[in-house]
Amino acid sequence: MEETWLWLKYLILGIVQGVTEPIPVSSSGHVIIAQRLLGTEQTGLTFEILTNTASLLAIMFIFRHDIWRLISNTWNYLRTRRAEYKSDFMFAVYVVVGTIPTVIIGLLLKDWIEAVFSSIKTVGIALFVTGIALWLIRNLRGRKQDGDLTMKDALFVGFAQAVALIPGISRSGATIVAAMGTGMKQDTALRYSFMLYIPASLGAIVLSLSDVMEASGETGMGLPYTLAFIATLITTYFSMKWLMGIMAKGNLKYFAYYCFVAGIVLLIVL
Question: What does this gene product do (predicted)?
Fold first, then answer.
């Protein structure tokens, strides 16, 4: 019975990670909440990397055509310098530039941020802040498309992604809010947000591999981790598709409502 409950807990945690990773409500904050409710305070670094990898794979699959176009057209531009490839080349450059703040701040402060800001109360406050940010940009309808981005835009959105290292601050929420705040159209903001997610997530996974190898001696966790991975993979895919539909309709305000309610409940109840 105890073993079955362990499997179920990790299945639930995988679902929570997958559902909340793409949408602007903070996956890290919700996993912390789920851990508290399930009595699993620390799931371990192996769990974190596995579920992050599952989310990454699902998102890369959804954006596979964009990824391939950016890679091939960047190569074509470097090889030929033809103007028709320049827009995708510059977009790729801005993805690299936007990733730099997260890399620097993550390497220097990630452990400290997680130690200081991982309490339930802090998560509640951060969710409320996320809600305010989403509410402020709910009616924005920018005009900038992929070819209109600037270095300033890339750095601004990149620093917003770095702020989302704080549990409870949604990564997708922070980057989409920042991108729309610079005047990007919703589809461009969404695409740029998740193009930024890919190298940041890949880097975090690579940097953590040695720690995962050290922790790989955990016994009896193979099936729970597998269940969490599969659950995260599947739910991330459908959650991302859901977000794309919501962004197309301009209904981000509903995520703001959710963050307000969730933040208040955490501050009062937990």
Answer: Catalyzes the dephosphorylation of undecaprenyl diphosphate (UPP). Confers resistance to bacitracin.
Q: Report d(CA 94, CA 188) in Å as an integer.
A: 13
**pLDDT tens, residue by residue, 202-235:** 887 877 766 666 555 555 677 888 999 999 999 9
Domain ranges of the chain: 2-269
Say whether pLDDT at 250 is over 70. Answer: yes
Under the banding of pLDDT at 50, 70 and 90, the label for residue 267 is confident
Compute φ and ψ for 184, nearest 5 degrees: -75, 145
- List, in order, residues 6 or more apart from 118 with CB less than 8 Å away: 32, 167
Give 137-164 pLDDT, tens digit per residue. 888 888 899 888 999 999 999 999 999 8
Closest CA to 258 of 50, 20, 55: 20
Give Cβ neighbours of residue 236 (< 8 Å, ≥ 6 apart): 17, 18, 19, 21, 22, 54, 55, 58, 59
